[in-house]
Amino acid sequence: MTTVTTPNDLLAAVPFLIGYQPSDSIVLISLKDESINMAIRIDFPESIEKREASALIEKLRGSDGALLVSYIPDSCHDTESVLLPLIEALEEEAIPLRESIIIVGNRWRSLMCNDPDCCPIEGSPLPELSGSRVAVEEIAQGKLMPFKNLTEMAGSLDQELDSVIIEMIGRIPPIDYDCDPTPAQREGANSILDFLHDFEVDGICRDKRLVAKVLVRLKDLQVRDFALGSMNGESDLYFDAWKWLLKKAPEGFIAAPATLFAVAAYERGDGAMANLALAKAEGDQPNYSMINLLKQLFRSGKSPTIFAELRAELHPKVCAALFSGSISA
User: Fold this and answer.
1) Could you give the residue ranges of the DSSP H alpha helices within 156-304?
2) pLDDT by residue (tens digit) across 188-245?
3) What's the CATH number of domain 7-149, 1.25.40, 1.10.260, 3.40.140, 3.40.1350?
4) Residue 195 needs a FRET pair 20 to 30 A away by CA distance; which of 27, 49, 102, 291 works?
5) Is this structure's pTM higher than 0.85?
């Protein structure tokens, strides 16, 4: 995230941090070493209990400071009372509140500034996002403009099915677990690598039979775990590739690419997109492994670096199981 030095910068940064233009929301941002470390968005509540505020602020433990940006719904008539438990919880954790901004309609003001010339009581007009310095710098770094709202973000994951891929899926036999599944699992792992290579070169996989094979083999949890372990959280390749594959997956084959995409989104800091992907996985297979695990992890607010730690521990074991004694290794 680019440097945020002014309230206008902060207002422009929030949609990039959560992926869409929020409304009726509270966005809590933690700072570490003077840089944005994490952003948490919740629906703007009627009230916040002390224990709820403490649980939320606990996720920011160890931060150097916090920023609070609140998008006030029409139904709220006492904003400061709603926000007070969060502010008190920050004080209890000894996390300095660096700024608290409220947005009402198309105007904003700081709750920490008492200068009427700087922050008039009626608020100041919201800055235009597209022309902001933050937007220019974020787009220059490869980020897309945020979605207008959560509904538009969810629509970006709608299926774009290909009849040829669906037909080829029907021609690929599933793994026979009554025999040794390792050769088929190894074939699936190699297919994953071929798919990612094609996507890295062209930004698409034109080999529809390969796409079908990847979708079929990803139903195997060992192959799914290989794909998960093959990811590098610093690369947008996996975010783009798994999103593309998810949109091509027919019913019954969505859960695996959806969970892979959820991890890639979370690692990139797109928490809202990660949760939407999990919802897609759950809609396809409600009892799919990893859904509850990822839900708990996302709710915990843990750093995305946890996935790098898990890969370092688990991926060598998966590779050994698949490729031990194999020329393909």
Assistant:
1) 163-171, 182-202, 208-217, 221-229, 237-248, 255-267, 271-284, 291-300
2) 999 999 999 999 999 999 999 999 999 999 999 999 999 999 998 667 899 999 999 9
3) 3.40.140
4) 291
5) no
